[in-house]
Structure formats: structure tokens, C-alpha cells
Write a structure and sequence with these properties.
3 domains; 6-stranded mixed beta sheet; 46% helix; alpha/beta; 8 strands; two-stranded antiparallel sheet; single chain
Amino acid sequence: MKEEFLHFIWKNRLFNHNDLKTINGIGVEVIDPGSYNTDSGPDFFNARIKIGSTEWAGNIEIHLNSSSWNCHGHYKDHTYDNVILHVVKEFDREVFTTEGRPLETAVLKWEDHVYVNYEGFLHNPNILACRDYLKNIDSYLIIHAIHNIAVERIKRKCNDIRPMLSDTLNDWEETLYRLIARYFGMNVNSEPFLRLATILPLKILRKHLDNRTQVEALLFGQAGFLDTLLFKEALNDEYFRILAREYRVLKAKYRLVSLDGWLWKYHRMRPANFPTIRISQLASLLVSSDPIFEKIKNSEGIGSLKKLLSADTSEYWKNHYIFGKVTKSWSGATGNIITGMLIINTVIPLLFLYGIMHNQYRYCDKAVDLADSLEPEDNKILRKWYEAGILPASAFESQGLIELYTMLCKNRRCLNCLIGSKLISLGKEIKPGNNPHLGEPVN
């Protein structure tokens, strides 16, 4: 058994209240279990309890065995002097504070089915441990859980962005440029794309936005793609020679140092996702949309935002995937799905963060509304939820389901999940139903 299970029992008041007594047999009444603390220090702050007829206010510490108090060094840590009750599963010795005060200790007891349910989830072979049990709870609780964790996902992405924003000295346009570049690299080339945007600042590109050829020359040159050793087929390619000539001049002017072209990956990738194609699309986006973040803030509705962030390659790349090698023609556009994912992964978290940092929460609301206006995604994780009967109505909900799986389900953190904790704490041992589907899509 883990201590987190005891935390769950205490936090949700699932213990047998009539049997909660100190080791000396004095009854304990829990008025307020306190605020759960996930950092260092006592497990619960600001609890209120009655021991006998005396009311106490202070902190609660929980262990499997009372002797763990000494094992963890609490007996010499003043942080724990304000503990008013030591809650344990087993009492094996009396313990004291730094001042020598004996701690009041109570042994937790609970209904057997609660731990049986918990163990059942921990060892469930399904990827989603609760898959076959969802019909046991109200669908509105599931929706509430999905919406809550969807917001947490946005906030987590915001925290990931903060260091980048700091590196750009709180330049929101420069930060968005780096985010977009990183996303254009997808998972395979995200790091080279981010490095490209870092060594080629937006302030340099802005001086050439009226000349797309120069923008592509800067991007391809800094990416290392204009190295003649990289694309031998390009030596007689007119467009390649034009870009190389432009880049030589601009490189000297701005004293630029390029990336190594061999950093980029192509293996097991659709040609439309080649970094050469994505760089040309990035050039298109910069040329047509600057200042992008300012326009995003003022955009009205998901349709106008999709149009703003749609990107197309230059004509050369509509029948090339690499320099010097002609292929059959294709559109060169990013497409609706890619644009939607760009909004989810870059625009929404940055807009949400802007609202938080400027105390303009209408931008936080706008970010959530944008996510709720986008069609749900489709991937391996979400298909597991579909099989369980959970059908997201928007990208906001599909993002919530991805976060739920990634942060909780995958690591069997069912006690930290609104859905899992509700199922575990049901008044009986839960049984799978004949029909695990909820019957209605989440909306």
C-alpha cells in the first residue's frame, strides 16, 4: 500500500468516522481535513479537528506506520511542530515533536471495497483502467473532469512557454515566431526548427518581408540547406543559385552563422512534411501575416484565425520536395488539419498566457473559446477513448482527454482523477457493465 492511498482516504473523508480515535481511545471528529499539500512539509495544512471536547487547528501528517515519523526525520524538523494529528495505518511506536511533545496519533480504518476498487484499477490490463466502469457514474462528472483537465493542459503549456518568453525579453511576436517554427518541425524536426528561429530573429526577417525570395534565402541559408554538399542535384538549379546568392550577401550583412544542414531528418516522413516544405510555408506565413500575434489578438472567430495562419509554399516547392529534383505537382498548402493543430499548440497557450500576465482574462476566455470551436483531433490516444464511448465534441475536449491519459491514466494516477476517484469511492465494489458506453457524446 502507498501513502497516497491514505491521503485519498483522508482528503475524501472515506474513513470510518465512528472508529477514528487516538491510540488512547479518545474520539476524533474531523471538522475540516485541511488543504492537501503536494510540496514539502505536512500532508494537509489548516485542518480543524476535535479530540474529545477540545478543538484544534493546525496540520495533519500521514504515514503508513507511526515509526515513519522518525524515519523521515520529522522529530528534528520544526516544520512539523504544528502537526495536531498523526494519522497512520499501523501504530508501531509513539513519536514526538522537536520540543518533546508526544503526538496524538489516530489509526485510519475504511471499508474494504475502497481498496479493492483501487487495487483493481492499478492492476487493470486495459490502457484506460476505468474503461469498462464508466457507465457507473454520471456523464456530467466525466464532462466536468475533461473540461477541468483541458484547462490544466493549457496552463501547463503556458508554463512551458514562459522560459522562451523570458529569453525574448517578453517579445510576444518573437515568442510566437519561435513557437510556430518549433511546431512546423513536428516531433521529428522540432529542435532544429526552434534553433533556426533562435539564430535568425524575427527582427532581421522583418526587414525583408516585402521580398519573399530574401526571406526564403535567409531561412534556407540559416537552416544549412544552401550548402552545395547537401543537395548535389541543386548545383544546376536556378532557384537554388538565386537563394544561395541572396544568402551570401545577407549572411555577411548580419554576420550570421548557419546550422549544419545534416541536422534535419527525413526518415519515415511524408514528403509534404519535409523540412524544406515547412520552411517555405513558414516564409509564407511570415510574409503574409506579420505582426501575427497582434492580428491573433484582434481576430474574430475561428474562421478568420484559420485564414490568418494558413500557409502556402512558393511556386518552386509545388513540384519539388528537395532542391534540384522535380516531382509531380501538389498544392503546397498546409491544410485545415495542420492549421488547426497549429492553433491548438501555439496560439491558444500563448494567448492564454498573455491574458494571465496582463490581467486581461478576456484573452484566456478567447483561448478556451477557440479550442471549443475547433473540431476534435484524431490520434491513437483518442481512439482509446472512442472505444470507451467518450466522444469529444471539440478540440478543447480532445485536448482534455489527451491530458487525462498522458498525466493520469498512463501512470495509473487514478486517485488524482475526478473520474477514477469517484469510481474508487463508490459505496460498493464496482462491477463492469454489459454496455460500457455512455450512449451520448461528450458535448
